[in-house]
From TrEMBL:
It holds the Pfam family SnoaL_4. Residues 4-121 form the SnoaL-like domain. This is SnoaL-like domain-containing protein.
Amino acid sequence: MSAEEVAQPVLRERQSRDRGWYEEMAACFTEDSVVKMSRFSGSGAGFVRATRDMADRGDLAVHHPGPPTVGIDQDRAPMELPLVIERRIDVDGVEADIASACRSQYRAQHGADGVWRIVRITMTWLHESRTPATTAGGREDRFV
C-alpha cells in the first residue's frame, strides 16, 4: 500500500465536493464516518447532504489542497492535508474574496473490499484573508 493510494479518497472527496459530484463524494466515506469542522459536525453522509444544500443556496467554494502527509499502519492511515478554501462573499454590499487557510486531519481505513475510505475528518483553521473582488467576471466565472 502506497501513500498515494491512501491519499486518493481524500483528494477525490475534495474534488467531488467542488465539482458537485455528490455520489462520488459519498463513496469516499465509511458508513460510520465522523466529520468535525467549524461549520459542520456529524456523519460523512450528513456532510455530503450539507454540502449539496450549501451549493443549492449558491454558497460555493473552491478547495486548493497542498501535498498530503500520509502515515500507514496496516489497514489504517492518518493523513494531514494543508488546504486553502476560496469563497466569494458579500461585505456590506461589496463582493469580496475570502481565502481560508487550514490544516485538515483525516483518518482513512482500508476496507475488506480493498478500498481506502475516510473514517474521520477534523480541521484546524489557521487564518483568513479578505480582499475586494476586482475580477471582470462574475461569481460563476470564478467558482466553476
